[in-house]
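Entry 14. Structure prediction run on the chain below.
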Amino acid sequence: MRGMFTAGVLDVLMEHSLTTDGTIGVSAGAVFGCNFKSHQIGRVIRYNTEYCNDKRYASFRNLLRTGNLYSEDFCYHEVPEKLDPFDEEAFRASPMDFFVVCTDLRTGDPIYHKCRSGDAEDVRWMEASASMPLAAKAVRIGHYSLLDGGVADSIPVRFFESLGYKRNLIILTQPKGFVKKKNPMLPAIRARYLRYPAFVAAVADRHERYNETLSYIAMQEASGKDYVIRPPIPLEIGAMERDPAQLRRVYETGRAVAENQIDKIEAFLNDVKLSPEA
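Output returned:
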């Protein structure tokens, strides 16, 4: 639910008619970031505050009954198809490229998928990107069994650079100076995914790759190649938050940070568009 910060930032960008040529989302960044391409201002905070207390949305009962903390049927069908519709037509019409990152359960490698239409298959890829180990079943798409993209590539800036995006606007949900530590749930993950040693290995050294990527981003930021938006202090919110006020607090933090930096963000994006490399 630190993704509420990202939602606040993206809503401000949309309100100021700022966009990007391409966007990539990981985990919550995938299921919330897709609204940036469909240009649905306010949708993320709206449906999360509306349903955060609904046991159909997220509950340990769901986990025990289905293997998913966040209900697959309610979150990825009932809400986007009926209760707070995802604008598939607008998503498809937008010229922005939108990618999500998932982790291959068998190999532990990142899988990058370009969501072209926002249809049911694309939503499955978004779901897979946000399917946390221990809290969700692996999502099967084609020959893949997929889980949370953050395991393999939490901040995929180098992948985007490989596609030709030379300068990037990066939204982080941890404050400056954050250092990721080893996953305290590693013993449980090792036991649960015993048949998938490569995936367990990816979980085990995730913190090292994450921290190395932060160091790389800091260099890119210092050189002016990347612009980084991050919260000023730890957001202190859990993966399953039932208090709408706490969700809104984090969302409003994202809005405040973006509004405070909006002139600099706009200048950076305009420079990108004027750059012959972009």
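The chain has twelve helices and seven strands.
Filed with the rest of this week's runs.
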